[in-house]
Design goal:
The protein is α+β, with helices and mostly antiparallel strands. The chain has 3 helices and 13 strands. Strand 6 and strand 7 form a beta hairpin. Helix 1 packs antiparallel against helix 2. The longest helix has 29 residues.
């Protein structure tokens, strides 16, 4: 304690460290939720960190000097003390302290970021879905469903086989319109089946693709009773949204199936349907609304 000070030389209470800790916690939460929350946490931590440093540095420069009786006796001026305005605001101790914190933060980042990269990076590398040729458009009769099975990665063989319900809706303007619905139930991922006849004996093959005509009135999950209409909308049971769909493209008269995406609901039917499309979500997760922010971030599909 400096005898010339009225109070001990200790920093006063501050809320900046609390805000900084909250920002770090939010950023860590974002690692398992989504990148927007990571960005929010970093912004909060930066703001409160800067305020914390400014407050600490400002407190270091404050010097409340009290008038005390000179130890040299009455009338003796004692040693000359420069006025507060001419003193160094930042002492060598403060400089070393802030430098140590800064260097420690940089070293911590250099050590932590590579580790996080090795843990999180693989989930985002080489995860893209390649388009798959399902055959000529003529193989798909208008306004009728076809159960299409294909290998999403032929190099891996049958283990990569996928199933989709494909319906040709006719032309939308000058372009062919297709509905391609995933057979994965959005409750727990069980295989959904057509609610209607499936004509196995009329199946066609095109490379690794098998096309089986069907006349479903909807789709049902045999595991837990989830039911969907012919557009994939949930009509009964535990599913939380409509069935996922696949993007598609037409090239040289062939239908190519692309990456999956999630659907909150579908309004209308066929080519005129209005699809409430969202980024891909796992089964059991909401695809829209505030609830969708509570689930982990998904790797690219």
């Amino acid at each position: 304690m400096d005898p010339r000070r009225k109070t001990p030389h200790v920093p006063g209470p501050s809320l900046w460290p609390v805000g900084f800790a909250i920002g770090v916690a939010v950023a860590l939460l974002g690692l398992v939720v989504r990148w927007q929350i990571i960005a929010l946490g970093i912004v909060i931590a930066l703001i409160f960190g800067i305020l914390w440093i400014r407050d600490a540095a400002g407190r270091r420069g404050i010097s409340d000097v009290a008038e005390v009786e000179s130890e040299y006796g009455p009338g003796h001026p004692g040693p000359t003390i420069p006025p507060p305005s001419t003193r160094d605001k930042y002492s060598r101790n403060v400089f070393l302290e802030l430098s140590t914190l800064g260097v420690g933060g940089i070293i911590g980042g250099l050590v932590t970021l590579p580790a996080l990269g090795f843990m999180i990076g693989p989930a985002f590398l080489k995860q893209g879905v390649k388009d798959h040729d399902l055959g000529p458009v003529e193989n798909f009769p208008q306004d009728a469903f076809v159960v299409a099975t294909y290998m999403s990665d032929p190099a891996q063989g049958e283990v990569s086989r996928r199933t989709a319900f494909v319906r040709y809706n006719g032309l939308l303007g000058s372009q062919p319109s297709f509905t391609i619905i995933s057979n994965h139930c959005v409750h727990l991922g069980c295989p959904v089946q057509p609610n209607g006849p499936v004509y196995d004996k009329q199946s066609k093959t095109y490379g690794d693709v098998t096309l089986i005509p069907a006349k479903p009135s909807g789709f049902g999950c045999p595991c837990h009773g989830g039911q969907y209409d012919s557009e994939g909308n949930r009509v009964a049971g535990p599913p939380v949204r409509a069935l996922d769909r696949y993007s598609f493209s037409i090239r040289n008269g062939h239908l190519y199936v692309g990456a999956p995406y999630s659907v909150a609901k579908v309004e209308g039917e066929g080519a005129a349907a209005k699809i409430h499309k969202n980024s891909y979500s796992f089964p059991g997760e909401q695809a829209s609304g505030i609830e969708s922010w509570l689930y982990p971030i998904q790797p690219p599909n």
